[in-house]
Amino acid sequence: MKQNSCSAYACRLVRIAAWPLSRERPSSFAKRLPIFMLLAAPFSIGWIDTAVAAITGTTGAVVVASPPADITNGAWESNTQIRAFAELQQVMLSQAISADISTPGTSPSSSDSNLSPATLQPGLIVNSYALHFDVVGSLATQNAKEASGSITFSDDVLGLIALSDTLNSSNGVLGLPTVLYASGADHGLELNPAGGGTSDIITLSADRKTVTVDLRNASFPDDLRIVTAVPEPPGLILAAGVFGSFLMARGYAAHKRSACREEIT
Q: Phi-psi bin for 45: left (phi > 0), alpha (psi -120 to 50), beta?
């Protein structure tokens, strides 16, 4: 029996992992597939967890709800809840979308509405979410109801669409086709630096993950659309994992091949 620096079994594993470099290839790709899938599994599982956990938490009056059929004035009312629901997910923008707030901070400031407009370009893939607060009936301004809370996402917030005009123009791109949306001029947030009345306050956190709102509503609803980033598609990450695993196996095989040229007899 000839001496060898690795066992016949170990040599076979090296050949299977590095079959493109070997002259002796296994007869079936099926023999190699489990190895690559096992090595790539952590990458694909990580993506799935990220995609499912898009909304990671809420506080205060913000609650996650199923999408309603109608969010026009008076259709979906509550004096205590700011309802959040998912709109279109992983949608590629077919046209440019205007966001009213795109940088962390609080709006309004003490001197102005503190808007930071940005344009989300066509081709960008995003997730969209809606916040809706509409008190029961119609109240006098001095009797406005107040509700506050926050919503946190696993992915970065790219932009906040808070004004009626930008909400209206993005309904057809980011809104659900099964929901009837308001289309007038009175359902956006009122970001009045003077405060009082039905003025609203919104804050995007420094890490771009949390949106905090303090809403005051008397008649027409307060609507907000939140646009977030989308993680890389699973196919790309799985492919990266397989390719990375192959490169590691290739390097290991190149290092060990000289020690595995002779089978144990």
A: alpha
